Amino acid sequence: MSTLKIATFNINGVRSRIGALVEWLEREAPDIVCLQELKAPDDAFPIDEIRAAGYGAIWHGQRSWNGVAILARGMEPLESRRGLPGDPADEQSRYLEGVAHGVIVGCLYLPNGNPQPGPKFDYKLAWFERLIEHAASLHGTGHPVVLAGDYNVVPTDELDIYNPRSWKKDALLQPESRDAYARLLAQGWTDAVRALHPEEKIFTFWDYFRKHWERDAGLRIDHLLLSPGLLPRLREAGVDRWVRGRPKPSDHAPTWIVLDE
């Protein structure tokens, strides 16, 4: 049976890490990729290198900050939405939606929210509410949907962070952030990585400070959520940790799932 591999990767600068991105694409060959933190305007997105690696792409960039993209192996994704509904004044490039290989993919970069409390945390929670509302409409269609990206939420203290003690005041661990994530799941979405690895400590992010990578002091903040119809097709899930160990890496590693097609 053929399969479909879908990945999410906060690239933390697509132009400076295009070599690492292409190396990963060639080695792991995901069919669909959601990228976050492009940190590049639309006209600086390295589409030529990505096409040379065998991928079509849609992207929603922003100079210096944010930015999201969807890549599809051997085809051009069909864009269905650019930006979350609910706030016409929001100019941050954090959400892109498209169709590829028979699946609707929502690529998201949820606000970090630090420092909290404050306006950045308020923006995070407001953005989260808009995501929850839009996700409900996607869920209601009955179509196969994956909501993939950097959620900037550590779901639990026990399995999703090396040690919560020094992170207690961080926006990623606040009760409001976790509650919003739980309410999103309660619509009927499945956290795919956790579904297949219910008791395993899994990390997708290791910041650049205090030798966190060398000590494996990580966090799980990159998630792939599946609509109900995709859950029976879920076969594998994991993290390409080797990417984080390469020279001058992103502080995230690609996180992926494999579905029966």
From TrEMBL:
Residues 7-252 form the Endonuclease/exonuclease/phosphatase domain. The record marks 252 as: Interaction with DNA substrate. The record marks 152 as: Transition state stabilizer. Keywords: Hydrolase, Magnesium, Manganese, Metal-binding. Probably binds two magnesium or manganese ions per subunit. GO terms for molecular function: DNA binding; double-stranded DNA 3'-5' DNA exonuclease activity; endonuclease activity; metal ion binding. It holds the Pfam family Exo_endo_phos. PROSITE patterns: AP_NUCLEASE_F1_1, AP_NUCLEASE_F1_4. The record marks 222 as: Important for catalytic activity. Mg(2+) binds at residues 10, 37, 150, 152, 251-252. The active site is at residues 109, 150, 252. Its cofactor is Mg(2+); Mn(2+). PANTHER family: EXODEOXYRIBONUCLEASE III (PTHR43250:SF1). This is Exodeoxyribonuclease-3. It comes from Lysobacter spongiicola DSM 21749.
